[in-house]
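Batch job 17 of 40 flagged for manual review because the log was empty.
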Amino acid sequence: QVQLVESGGGLVQAGGSLRLSCAVSGTSFKLNTMVWYRQAPGKQRELVAGITSGGSTNYADSVKGRFTISRDNAKNTVYLQMNSLKPDDTSVYYCNLASSSRWTALIPWGQGTQVTVSS
């Protein structure tokens, strides 16, 4: 059974930084495309960033130049480095395995990690 455990969220002032982590177990991590999504209250969940098994990346326009997705296959962990945070980045952030062609999530969501950016 695949498990996803997100961590690293918190409260930060606008302009600050956070690094999210997602530990993955129960699957061949290095073979999987991984994604970060986020969901703000009253809004649909949206793709933030994705990284393929080969290291190719994809970002939402709203975070390009500010967020960086990376992976450590030795630790079965995917990261999201978030810089220059804005209040609009306030959301619950989730990781997942994904289809490399459409960046769509493949398994049930974990608990996520809350990111709150104050103005």
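Reviewer: the log was empty due to a logging misconfiguration, but the result itself is present. The first strand starts at residue 3 and ends at 7. Unflagging and moving on to job 18.
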